[in-house]
C-alpha cells in the first residue's frame, strides 16, 4: 500500500534476520497500526535463503505486511527507506587483527552509507547492529553527509536489557521495576553498565543492591560477557534477544520512552559527559516526538568515570584506525 513504511534489513538471511523479520511484519517495530514494506539486502550467495524467508513471511499472511523486495544491490535496498536496520556484517574470524576486521566492515558500511545518502527517505533512521556496531555506524554516517548525523545510531539496547534482567534477578523484582539504567560507551567488553543512576521501585539501584563486590566483579562482567556466555550455552550467538533489542530501540526512538524512564542508545556524541564530539557512543537518552535527547546533569564518582573513559578511549582508537584506512 502507498502509506507503508519502508524498512530495510541487511543480513536478512542471517540468524538475527530470521528472528527479526517476522516480528517487524507483525507490528512489533512500529506498532499495530503501521503497515510495513520490507526490503531485504543480502550478498549473492545468501539471496536464495532470503527468498525462502520471504516465502515464509508470505505464508504468515501478516495483515501489516504490504510487500517484500529482495536484492543484493544496496542502492535498491535503501531507495526510499524510512528505517534501516544494518545487521549484516563481517564477523571476526580466527587470526584476524582488529585492523583487518575494521577494513572488512568498511567494505560493507561505506557503500551502504553512500547508498543511504543517495536514496533514503528524508526521515530515515538507521540502526547498526552488525559488529563492531559503533564504528560501523560511524563509517556509514560519515559516508552519508547529506543525512543528519543524528539519524545514525548503533545498538546497545541488548546490553541495556541484559543489565535490567541481571539486576531484577539479583533483587528478585520484576524487570518493570528497574528504570534509568544506562550503558555507556562502546558495544564491546569495555562497555559500562551504570547502576548508580538507575532506580528500583523508585530507590537508587546501587544502594538497593548494596554490594560493591557483586556490582564490580559479577554484574559488570556478566553483562559485558553475556554474548560469549550465550555462544557457549547455545552453540550460536544471541539472535532472538538481539532482534528484540533492535525492535525496542527503533520503537522507542519513534514512539518515545516511557515517562519517568530513559533508555540506552549509541549516538553521535555532542560532547556531553566529555565524550569527544562525533564518536558514536552509548548514552542515556529520552525519546520524544520521534527524536532523542541525551539525559544531562548526571554526576559520577571515580569508579564510573574511569570506566566510561576507558570505553570512550577504545572508540577513539577505532575511529583513528578507520580514518587511517581512509574509510571516513
Ligand atoms: P549471521 O552470520 O547469521 O548473519 C549475517 C548475515 O549478513 C549473513 O546472512 C550474511 O550473508 C549477511 N551479510 C554479510 N555481508 C553483507 C552485506 N554486505 N550486505 C548484506 N548482507 C550481508 O549473523 P547474525 O547472528 O545474524 O549477527 C549479525 C551481526 O550482529 C553480527 O555482526 C553480530 O556480531 C552482530 N550482533 C550485534 C549485537 C549487538 O548488540 N549490537 C548482538 C548480537 C550480534 O552478535
From TrEMBL:
<dbReference type="InterPro" id="IPR022383">
    <property type="entry name" value="Lactate/malate_DH_C"/>
</dbReference>
<dbReference type="InterPro" id="IPR001236">
    <property type="entry name" value="Lactate/malate_DH_N"/>
</dbReference>
<feature type="binding site">
    <location>
        <position position="105"/>
    </location>
    <ligand>
        <name>NAD(+)</name>
    </ligand>
</feature>
<dbReference type="InterPro" id="IPR001557">
    <property type="entry name" value="L-lactate/malate_DH"/>
</dbReference>
<feature type="domain" description="Lactate/malate dehydrogenase N-terminal">
    <location>
        <begin position="6"/>
        <end position="146"/>
    </location>
</feature>
<feature type="binding site">
    <location>
        <position position="162"/>
    </location>
    <ligand>
        <name>substrate</name>
    </ligand>
</feature>
<feature type="binding site">
    <location>
        <position position="112"/>
    </location>
    <ligand>
        <name>NAD(+)</name>
    </ligand>
</feature>
<feature type="binding site">
    <location>
        <begin position="11"/>
        <end position="17"/>
    </location>
    <ligand>
        <name>NAD(+)</name>
    </ligand>
</feature>
<dbReference type="InterPro" id="IPR015955">
    <property type="entry name" value="Lactate_DH/Glyco_Ohase_4_C"/>
</dbReference>
<feature type="active site" description="Proton acceptor">
    <location>
        <position position="187"/>
    </location>
</feature>
<dbReference type="Pfam" id="PF00056">
    <property type="entry name" value="Ldh_1_N"/>
</dbReference>
<keyword id="KW-0560">Oxidoreductase</keyword>
<dbReference type="InterPro" id="IPR010945">
    <property type="entry name" value="Malate_DH_type2"/>
</dbReference>
<dbReference type="GO" id="GO:0006108">
    <property type="term" value="P:malate metabolic process"/>
</dbReference>
<feature type="binding site">
    <location>
        <begin position="129"/>
        <end position="131"/>
    </location>
    <ligand>
        <name>NAD(+)</name>
    </ligand>
</feature>
<feature type="domain" description="Lactate/malate dehydrogenase C-terminal">
    <location>
        <begin position="156"/>
        <end position="321"/>
    </location>
</feature>
<keyword id="KW-0520">NAD</keyword>
<dbReference type="Pfam" id="PF02866">
    <property type="entry name" value="Ldh_1_C"/>
</dbReference>
<feature type="binding site">
    <location>
        <position position="98"/>
    </location>
    <ligand>
        <name>substrate</name>
    </ligand>
</feature>
<dbReference type="InterPro" id="IPR036291">
    <property type="entry name" value="NAD(P)-bd_dom_sf"/>
</dbReference>
<keyword id="KW-0816">Tricarboxylic acid cycle</keyword>
<feature type="binding site">
    <location>
        <position position="92"/>
    </location>
    <ligand>
        <name>substrate</name>
    </ligand>
</feature>
<dbReference type="GO" id="GO:0006099">
    <property type="term" value="P:tricarboxylic acid cycle"/>
</dbReference>
<comment type="function">
    <text>Catalyzes the reversible oxidation of malate to oxaloacetate.</text>
</comment>
<dbReference type="InterPro" id="IPR001252">
    <property type="entry name" value="Malate_DH_AS"/>
</dbReference>
<protein>
    <recommendedName>
        <fullName>Malate dehydrogenase</fullName>
        <ecNumber>1.1.1.37</ecNumber>
    </recommendedName>
</protein>
<comment type="similarity">
    <text>Belongs to the LDH/MDH superfamily. MDH type 2 family.</text>
</comment>
<dbReference type="GO" id="GO:0030060">
    <property type="term" value="F:L-malate dehydrogenase (NAD+) activity"/>
</dbReference>
<feature type="binding site">
    <location>
        <position position="131"/>
    </location>
    <ligand>
        <name>substrate</name>
    </ligand>
</feature>
Amino acid at each position: 500500500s502507498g502509506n507503508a513504511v519502508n524498512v530495510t534489513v541487511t543480513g536478512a538471511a542471517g540468524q538475527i534476520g530470521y528472528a527479526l523479520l517476522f516480528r517487524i511484519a507483525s507490528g512489533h517495530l512500529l506498532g499495530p497500526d503501521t503497515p510495513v514494506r520490507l526490503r531485504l539486502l543480502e550478498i549473492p550467495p545468501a539471496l536464495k535463503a532470503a527468498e525462502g524467508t520471504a516465502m515464509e513471511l508470505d505464508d504468515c499472511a501478516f495483515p501489516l505486511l504490504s510487500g517484500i523486495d529482495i536484492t543484493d544491490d544496496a542502492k535498491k535496498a535503501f531507495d526510499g527507506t524510512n528505517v534501516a536496520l544494518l545487521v549484516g556484517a563481517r564477523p571476526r574470524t580466527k587470526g584476524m587483527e582488529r585492523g583487518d576486521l575494521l577494513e572488512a566492515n568498511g567494505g560493507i558500511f561505506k557503500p551502504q552509507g553512500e547508498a543511504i545518502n543517495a536514496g533514503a527517505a528524508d526521515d530515515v533512521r538507521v540502526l547498526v547492529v552488525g559488529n563492531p556496531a559503533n564504528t560501523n555506524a560511524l563509517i556509514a554516517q560519515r559516508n552519508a553527509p547529506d543525512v543528519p548525523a543524528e539519524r545514525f545510531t548503533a545498538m546497545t539496547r541488548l546490553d541495556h536489557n541484559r543489565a535490567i534482567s541481571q539486576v531484577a534477578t539479583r533483587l528478585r523484582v520484576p524487570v518493570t521495576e528497574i528504570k534509568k539504567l544506562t550503558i555507556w560507551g562502546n558495544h564491546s567488553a569495555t562497555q559500562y553498565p551504570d547502576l548508580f543512576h538507575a532506580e528500583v521501585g523508585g530507590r537508587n539501584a546501587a544502594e538497593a543492591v548494596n554490594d560493591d563486590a557483586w556490582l564490580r566483579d559479577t554484574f559488570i562482567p556478566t553483562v559485558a560477557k553475556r554474548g560469549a556466555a550465550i555462544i557457549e550455552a547455545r552453540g550460536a550467538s544471541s539472535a532472538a534477544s538481539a532482534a528484540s533489542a533492535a525492535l525496542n530501540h527503533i520503537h522507542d526512538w519513534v514512539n518515545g520512552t516511557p515517562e519517568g524512564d530513559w533508555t540506552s542508545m549509541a549516538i553521535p556524541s555532542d560532547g556531553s559527559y566529555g565524550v569527544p564530539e562525533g564518536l558514536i557512543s552509548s548514552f542515556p537518552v529520552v525519546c520524544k516526538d520521534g527524536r532523542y535527547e541525551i539525559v544531562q546533569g548526571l554526576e559520577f564518582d571515580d569508579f564510573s568515570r574511569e570506566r566510561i573513559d576507558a570505553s570512550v578511549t577504545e572508540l577513539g582508537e577505532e575511529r583513528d584506525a578507520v580514518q587511517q584506512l581512509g574509510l571516513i
